């Protein structure tokens, strides 16, 4: 039996309450960038625009689902802090270091641009304003006009803080997949049908270039001419890609793309189910090598993505196997990943004990995978 909406709402409430109680610096009305498993502030954790935009998304979506004004306040704090990362040359800076100076990560900064758009749109859904609409328009135009390869299509990674391209440009799955997600959210917000061809193009690019045709694994990075670079297979990204592609295709109502994405998603899931699930201890591993897991831990976000991918598989096939397996994973998450504080552990061992050395909140772990998990379960309405 699927967990009740009451139980899932309570888990989400507990998660959001964790953020309200532990992550706000009330002295200057900002978010802390790190919280330990003992709920202590980690003062030297760097702060990133992706972290803030994910918090903006999570708080906004929490408010959308549960309608508690405290979550709107949390979203507003995230929004104000994110604005301080705005780059006068366009887009948003990657991060601030301990000295409060902006730093850059050329391979990843484009992904932060996608998440920033995603967060701004989520906030606009609950607190619309002329300022927000201008920020959203500026960011969406910046992404399409500055980061896009007009010769060979796709987004180019490798920019410095002035948006000059470095000597080793690439094209990554992360940038394309999360930009697709951001523009889907934008279309849902403004219903601008001129966005749909761009969404279809991104779907086609991912299907064509980022999924292998034999093992149906995601390829993480290419050269600018679409030559695959050395790849590490992540089952979590495979699962995430499978359901996002289908969700995107369904949004376009393009029947050919819907069919193509559905077929691809089931092939991806067949591989993950056979290779990544821990049939002894529960949950799934992430990193695979030669079709086998090479880890002794489970990470939080692949578990969430697996649930959504399995629910998507059930929606496509109506095969109860997918639904039952999704329920197993949801129980595994509830029983093992959720700390008594309400936040999810980053990592647990095969023994199901948490790795308490890794913080509950850190540069790469904000309010995205957790809150989106609850939001999308409700979207699937299964």
UniProtKB/TrEMBL annotation:
GO BP annotation list: carbohydrate metabolic process
Q: Which InterPro entries match?
A: 6-hairpin_glycosidase_sf (IPR008928), 6hp_glycosidase-like_sf (IPR012341), AGE/CE (IPR010819)
Short name of one Pfam family for this protein? Answer: GlcNAc_2-epim
* Keyword Isomerase annotated: yes
Q: Where are the transmembrane segments?
A: none
Q: Which GO terms describe its molecular function?
A: isomerase activity
Q: Which family does it belong to?
A: Belongs to the N-acylglucosamine 2-epimerase family.
Q: What is this protein's record name?
A: N-acylglucosamine 2-epimerase (GlcNAc 2-epimerase)
Species name for this entry?
Lutibacter maritimus
């Amino acid at each position: 039996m699927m967990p009740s909406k009451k139980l899932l709402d309570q888990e989400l409430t507990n998660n959001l309450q964790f953020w309200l109680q532990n992550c706000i610096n009330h002295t200057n009305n900002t978010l802390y960038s790190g919280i330990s498993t003992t709920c202590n502030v980690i003062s030297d954790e760097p702060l990133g625009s992706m972290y803030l935009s994910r918090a903006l998304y999570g708080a906004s979506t929490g408010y959308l689902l549960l309608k508690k004004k405290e979550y709107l306040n949390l979203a507003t704090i995230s929004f104000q802090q994110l604005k301080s990362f705005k780059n006068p040359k366009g887009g948003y800076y990657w991060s601030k270091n301990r000295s409060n100076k902006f730093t850059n990560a050329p391979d990843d900064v484009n992904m932060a641009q996608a998440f920033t758009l995603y967060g701004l749109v989520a906030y606009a859904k609950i607190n619309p304003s002329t300022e927000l609409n201008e920020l959203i328009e500026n960011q969406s135009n910046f992404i399409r006009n500055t980061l896009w390869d007009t010769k060979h299509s796709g987004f180019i990674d490798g920019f410095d803080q002035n948006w000059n391209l470095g000597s080793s440009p690439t094209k990554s799955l992360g940038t394309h997949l999360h930009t697709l997600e951001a523009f889907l959210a934008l279309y849902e917000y403004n219903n601008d049908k001129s966005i749909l061809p761009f969404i279809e193009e991104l779907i086609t690019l991912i299907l064509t270039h980022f999924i292998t045709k034999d093992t149906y694994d995601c390829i993480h990075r290419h050269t600018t001419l679409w030559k695959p670079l050395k790849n590490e297979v992540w089952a979590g990204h495979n699962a995430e890609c499978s359901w996002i592609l289908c969700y995107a295709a369904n949004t376009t109502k393009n029947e050919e793309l819907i069919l193509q994405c559905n077929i691809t998603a089931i092939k991806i899931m067949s591989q993950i189910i056979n290779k990544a699930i821990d049939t002894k201890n529960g949950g799934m591993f992430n990193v695979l090598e030669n079709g086998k897991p090479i880890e002794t831990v489970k990470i939080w976000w692949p578990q969430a993505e697996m649930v959504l991918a399995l629910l998507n598989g059930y929606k496509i096939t109506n095969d109860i196997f997918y639904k039952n397996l999704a329920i197993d994973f949801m129980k595994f998450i509830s029983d093992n990943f959720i700390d008594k504080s309400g936040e999810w552990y980053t990592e647990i061992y095969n023994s199901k004990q948490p790795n308490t050395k890794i913080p509950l909140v850190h540069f790469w772990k904000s309010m995205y995978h957790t809150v989106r998990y609850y939001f999308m379960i409700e979207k699937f309405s299964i």
